[in-house]
Amino acid sequence: MAQIKKIKVDSDKIQTAIRACIPLTISTYTLPAEMEEYIVDVLKEFLIQLNQQHLFDSLSYCVKELVVNAKKANTKRIYFKLKNLDITNDEDYKAGMVNFKQDTLNNIHYYLEEQRKNGLYIKVLFQMRNNKIKVEVRNKADLTVNEYMRIHDKITRAQQFDSIEEGVVQLLDETEGAGLGLVIMILLLRKIGLTEENYQVLSENGETITRIIIPFTKKFTNDLSEVSSKFVDLIEGLPEFPENIAEVNKLISDPNSKMSDIAMKISNDVSLTGELLKMVNSAAYSLATPCQSISEAVKIVGLRGIKNLLFSIGSMKSLVAESSEENKKLWDHSYKVGFFAYNLARNFCKNSEERAFIEDSYVCGILHDMGKILFVNAHPDVLEKIKNLCIQRGIPAGLFEGLIAGVNHGAVGALIAEKWNFPEVLVNIIRYHHSPEEAPENIRKLAAIIYLSDLIAHYGEGTVEYDQISDEVLKMFDISSEKQFEGIAERLLSSFEKNKK
C-alpha cells in the first residue's frame, strides 16, 4: 500500500488567523487522502492553539464525515448531468440514486477530474471569534429539496436515540451510505454538550454550507476573563499619556483656541515639532513638496488630523519601552495599514458625511494594533507574575501563551485608548478592527476600511489568503474577485514602497 504524502501544517499561519479572528480555509476539488489527513491535522493544531484539544476526537469525525459528503454531493452533480437526469426532480433523483454509488466507484477518477474541470470545490473553514469556534464545510452546489429533507430527517431521527450505539443498531442506509454517519455526528455533538441549534445546513450563493458553532466552555471563558483582568491591572499601571501632547490636544479641542496659538504651542516643543513634521511628510500624505512648518501642516491635514497624529506620537512614546526587531516589525505593519487606510478612505468615502473617515483613517490604521504592542512591551516581571497566577489556579499554559501572543489585543488596546481619553471613534476602531460588522453603525465603514487595510498588509506579507477575507467587507467595497483584490493590493503596496523612499 502506497504511503500517504503528508502536507506540512503551517503553525504560524494558524496563529495569525486566530489572532486576527479570520477564518482558516482549505480548498480542494478531489479530496485525496493526503488532503483529508491535512484537514484533520490543521484542525488539531487549531484546537491546540486555542487550548481546546478535548474537542478533537468528536470534531475530527464530524469534519471527515462532512467533507466526504460534500465530495459525494459534487460527484452526484456530475453523474446526474452525464445521465441527463434532473437532480431537482424527485423521480429523476430516485432513478439516479439506484446505481449512483456503484457506477461512480467503478470510475471514480473520471468523476473527480470532472469535478475539478467544472469548478466543483470543497472548502473547509475553521475560525475563532467571540469565544466561539466555527467549523464550516462548503461545496459548490445548491442543496436540493430532496437532500435538505433527507438531512433534516436524519437530524430528527437522531434525537430519538440515547447513545451512538443505539443509533448504529437501529439505523442503516443502503441507498447513499451517509445517513448513519450523519446520525453518529449529531450524537457526537450532543456528547460534547451541543444541541441541534449548534448545527446548521443551508444553501446560498450557489453553495451548500454545513456549519457547526461551538461556544467555549464556561471554565475556559472564566479562565480567559481571570487572566485578562490581570492585563487590565497592567494597563492601569501604564504611564499617563505624555503631558505635552495632552496639553496640545486639549487646546485643539477648545473651540475658543486660535490657530496661531495652537501652532505656537506645538512649535515651542522642538522634539514634538520634529516628530509631527516627520509624520506629515510620511508616505501616507504623499506631498509633492515637503512640509516645513506646523502652520503649513495644519493647513494640509487640518486640526483634526494634527490631533490624530499627536495621539499616534504619544502612543509610541508611552507604549514602546525599547527598540527591538519585533517592535520595528509591528510599527512597520502599522504604518503600512495607516497608509492603506488613508488611501482607501480617500477613494471610498466620497460624501460629506464621510469626510471625517478620511481624516481619522490614518491614525486608526497606525494604532489598530495598540494592544498587540502592549503585549510585546509588557515588563517581564509582570508577565512572570501572571504566569505564576495561571499555574496556581490551574489555568493551562496554552491559554496564557495565547493571551501573550495577543489573541484579545483588540479589547486590550481599546482599554488603553479609553484610559488615555482617546476619541470614542478611535477606541471603537481599535476594539472592532477584526470584526467591523459589530462596530457601531456610524463608524462601521471606517472599521471595515481598517479591517481591509490590515488584511491587505497581511496579504502582501504572505500570511493571509484571499479566501480568509470577509465576503461582507469585500462586497462593501465592490470587490468581486481575487484578481481585482490583488490589483488593489499591488497598487497600494507599490505606492507605499515608492513614497517610503
Task: Write structural notes for this entry.
By secondary structure, the chain is an alpha+beta fold. Helix content is 64%, strand content 7%. The chain has a five-stranded antiparallel β-sheet. Helix 1 packs across helix 2, helix 15 crosses helix 21 and helix 19 packs antiparallel against helix 20.
Summarize the structure.
With 501 residues, the protein is α+β, with helices and mostly antiparallel strands. It has helices at residues 11-19, 33-49, 56-82, 90-106, 108-117, 145-158, 164-170, 179-191, 218-236, 243-253, 259-267, 270-280, 294-319, 325-348, 355-367, 370-377, 380-393, 397-404, 409-419, 424-432, 444-461, 471-476, 482-500; strands at residues 24-28, 122-129, 132-139, 199-204, 207-215.
Approximate helicity band: 55-70%
Neighbour order of strands in the largest sheet: 1-2-3-5-4
Major sheet: size, sense and barrel closure?
A: 5 strands, antiparallel
The overall strand count is: 5
The radius of gyration over CA amounts to 27 Å
Protein traits:
about 500 residues; alpha+beta; 5-stranded antiparallel sheet; 23 helices; about 65% helix
Structural topology:
Layout: H1 11-19, E1 24-28, H2 33-49, H3 56-82, H4 90-106, H5 108-117, E2 122-129, E3 132-139, H6 145-158, H7 164-170, H8 179-191, E4 199-204, E5 207-215, H9 218-236, H10 243-253, H11 259-267, H12 270-280, H13 294-319, H14 325-348, H15 355-367, H16 370-377, H17 380-393, H18 397-404, H19 409-419, H20 424-432, H21 444-461, H22 471-476, H23 482-500
Antiparallel strand pairs: 1-2, 2-3, 3-5, 4-5
Helix pairs in contact: 1-2, 2-3, 3-4, 3-5, 3-8, 6-8, 9-17, 9-19, 10-13, 12-13, 13-15, 14-15, 14-21, 15-20, 15-21, 16-19, 19-20
